[in-house]
Design a protein that fits this description.
Blueprint lengths: L19 H9 L5 H5 L5 E3 L16 E13 L5 E7 L4 E6 L4 H6 L5 E6 L2 E3 L2 E5 L2 E4 L13 E3 L8 H17 L9 H7 L4 H9 L7 H32 L9 H10 L6 H14 L6 E6 L5 H14 L3 E5 L3 H15 L6 E4 L5 H13 L4 E4 L13 E7 L6 H10 L8 E6 L5 H7 L4 E5 L9 E7 L3 H13 L3 E5 L7 H18 L5 E4 L5 H12 L5 E4 L12 E7 L6 H8 L9 E7 L5 H12 L3 H18 L1 H4 L9 H4 L3 H14 L4 H8 L10
Parallel strand pairs: 4-7, 10-15, 10-16, 11-13, 11-14, 12-13, 14-15, 17-22, 18-20, 18-21, 19-20, 21-22
Antiparallel strand pairs: 1-9, 2-3, 2-5, 3-4, 5-8, 6-7
Helix pairs in contact: 4-6, 6-7, 7-23, 7-24, 9-10, 10-11, 19-20
């Protein structure tokens, strides 16, 4: 299919009425081309196809009326305003304008015939409309009512609804009366999916007939959402296909080495861990790069699965890079990998942004020479100065905190002789199925759906801060029984400094209230060595109560700590609260989490806390988090390289993804020439998942 004279290449300045000022306003809405205007859909519609007698108006119900101005005056009573009294023989209505000009006063003078649309409400002198949409009707001329619903579009300050409506009307005329907007989906595919053509869908959305049904508008919207989801799926599928064509070193783990490693562990592997390890080893044994996502709830044992995969790379003479989003988690991984692999003769190096001078040079030399078999670190691992001798496997923890392009950049560092490293991505944040199907379409997915023996469900209680004395008394009893406690201070005004100050004050107050309890403090502004010392002492039982900021969200494992108190949990999202709660329940005996909130709670906060009280299932929590916060906020859209949608909404349109997936396969097989055109239509260059 030849590329049409695309409207995506036609700037908005080609339209009548778009000067520099309007262009700048449209830029704020990311409307740069005529095509962008077509995909800027209405928020809602108003029915202006009929008139309502003034005497039949209902308070709060939008309506269109027509009448003559009987009185027009500027009142100084209360707030200065222009008030026009309009009559139509059935009743009286006041139009009130707080912002007005002399020209407007002239048009709305006594005797003028006016038509206006707005929301009637009770005023001092009866029904009134404040700042209605209005027009003066010329005498002796016919002014027919509209035959379509009136669309109401998202705006930016300074851009009027009428102006944007006129521009979109021009764009729609161009689309319908030229070859500038080609339907890229084959008619047979549209028929199979029960969807209209693109021109028909756009006509229905921007010019719906006055008696349009909700079902017809929804179908038209689904037509655009389907195509947009298809474009994103195809982009990721193309990335996956290209990656599958690349070569990778085949990594094999001898059975004897695997048995030796398992025998050295202080715990048995679960059936779920064993199953996922088998899936990973099967991938590693091929000469194509593995791209596998391992999902597992908090405490399901993902790290030891990654260590098992690392052994396969090491046994095949390759290095392993393990990347974590924070230094605290990277340090925890370094300890775990060292504990398990050092006895097998493997050197585990650590590289983070804090390393400077001779220490950094020494680590870089070990990596370059290959003496370091496993290298654990933060994003510092993919800096230019880092050179691997033979990188065979990349392990990335909490992938949603890294962008797709960061992931690819690390992979490129391992390219050698036309071969690329395998990738294993882990997350303890369960990904809702709809997000996994689209945001991770380039990955195979394994799920560790079983917790190790001894992990007990955490009982969650929600209490107001007024119960603080009772909670403190409970801590004293808990410590007397020989158990340990976390007290978590949550984020304050997005400031790490204020968060740390709050934790320090809480530690002092708790130490005074609990004189027989050994209190310790940890927060993000402490030096790594200090944090290590505090955590090691807590793990060794040298302190009873650890007051902490959310730095303990990941990477902390103290089996004897079975009680956690989270202050102001209403400040955090569901996923983060679930991660924090996962720090307890790691040892024998009952485990509890107390969510101590500051009343009154918003409806959203009530819903979040109720979800945590009702379930410990990470996937149920993830789905609920998606409903409450939406995919963009949940996945950190702009920060992480995840996609933004113009029309599609994963909450509303997620059920389409199975059909999108099968349609993508059909399109690739039967109409591959349309794929690039779809990507160009829907994805900005920076959002297309291309090789970097």
């Amino acid at each position: 299919m030849a590329a049409p004279k695309a409207l995506d290449g036609l700037p908005v300045t080609a339209l009548k009425g778009v000067g520099e000022r309007v262009r700048q306003l449209l830029d704020k809405l990311h409307l740069h081309s005529v095509q962008d205007l077509l995909f800027h859909l209405p928020l809602r519609y108003e029915d202006r196809s009929y008139l309502t007698p003034i005497g039949g108006l209902q308070t709060g119900v939008h309506a269109q009326v027509e009448g003559r101005v009987e009185l027009s005056e500027v009142t100084a009573k209360g707030r200065r305003a222009l008030v026009c009294r309009v009559a139509d023989g059935s009743g009286l209505l006041n139009l009130r304008f707080f912002h007005f000009t002399a020209a407007q006063m002239g048009k709305l003078s006594r005797g003028a015939r006016v038509r206006c649309y707005g929301e009637p409400r009770e005023g001092y002198y009866g029904l009134e409309m404040v700042h209605p949409d209005w027009q003066v009707l010329a005498e002796g001329e016919d002014h027919p009512l509209g035959h379509t619903l009136t669309p109401i579009y998202p705006l930016t300050e300074g851009l009027h609804q009428k102006s944007l409506r006129r521009l979109i009307e021009q764009a729609l005329d161009l689309a319908l009366n030229s070859s500038g907007l080609v339907d890229l989906l084959p008619p047979e595919l549209l028929a199979q999916q029960g969807l209209p053509s693109l021109p028909e869908a756009l006509r229905q959305l921007h010019r719906p007939p006055a008696r349009a049904t909700l079902a017809s508008l929804k179908t038209a919207q689904q037509r655009l959402a389907f195509e947009e989801l298809l474009a994103h799926h195809l982009s990721l599928s193309r990335l996956r296909s290209r990656a599958r064509l690349r070569r990778a070193p085949a990594l094999d783990l001898p059975a004897r080495e695997a048995q030796r490693f398992r025998a050295s562990l202080p715990f048995p592997l679960t059936a779920a861990q064993t199953r996922v390890i088998a899936e990973i080893l099967a991938d590693l044994a091929t000469e194509h790069p593995m791209m596998r996502l391992v999902q597992g709830d908090v405490g399901s044992g993902k790290t030891v699965v990654a260590a098992h995969a690392a052994l396969a790379a090491l046994a095949s003479g390759c290095q392993v890079a393990v990347m974590a989003p924070t230094e605290l988690l990277a340090e925890q991984h370094h300890r775990s990998f060292s504990q398990w692999l050092n006895p097998l003769g493997v050197e585990v190096a650590f590289l983070a942004g804090k390393h400077k001078g001779a220490v950094r040079r020494g680590v870089l030399e070990e990596i370059a020479h290959g003496s370091a078999g496993v290298i654990v670190g933060t994003h510092a691992l993919f800096q230019e100065t880092v050179e691997f001798r033979r990188l065979g496997l990349i392990v990335i923890d909490e992938q949603h905190r890294f962008g797709v392009h960061q992931r690819l950049a690390l992979r490129e560092k391992g390219a050698r002789d036309g071969r690329y490293p395998h990738q294993l991505i882990m997350t303890a944040t369960p990904i809702p199925r709809t997000l996994a199907m689209l945001g991770y379409a380039d990955l195979d997915v394994s799920v560790i759906d079983e917790l190790p023996p001894g992990r007990t469900p955490v009982k969650t209680t929600v209490l107001p801060a007024t119960r603080r004395p009772d909670i403190i008394a409970r801590i004293a009893d808990w410590v007397r029984s020989g158990r340990q406690v976390y007290w978590v201070c949550t984020l304050i005004e997005e400031s790490e400094l204020l968060q740390c100050e709050a934790a320090e004050k809480a530690a002092v107050a708790l130490a005074e209230a609990l004189p027989n309890v050994r209190c310790a403090l940890i927060h993000g502004r402490m030096k790594p060595a200090e944090k290590d010392a505090v955590m090691s002492a807590f793990k060794a039982g040298e302190s009873d109560l650890l007051v902490a900021t959310t730095v303990i969200e990941v990477g902390v494992d103290v089996p004897n700590a079975g009680l956690m108190v989270i202050e102001n949990p209403e400040r955090l999202g569901l996923a983060q609260l679930h991660q924090l709660r996962g720090r307890v329940g790691r040892g024998p005996g009952d485990s509890h989490c107390v969510l101590m909130y500051q009343p009154p709670l918003s409806a959203s906060a009530q819903s979040r806390l109720a979800t945590l009280r009702e379930t410990g299932d990470g996937f149920v929590i993830a789905e609920r988090d998606l409903e409450l916060r939406g995919p963009g906020e949940l996945m950190g859209v702009r920060q992480t390289g995840q996609v933004q949608f113009r029309v599609a909404d994963l909450l509303r349109d997620g059920a389409m993804l199975e059909r999108v997936k099968s349609s993508a396969e059909t399109l690739l097989d039967e109409n591959p020439e349309r794929v690039q055109l779809l990507l160009r239509r829907w994805l900005a260059q920076g959002e297309q998942y291309v090789e970097v």
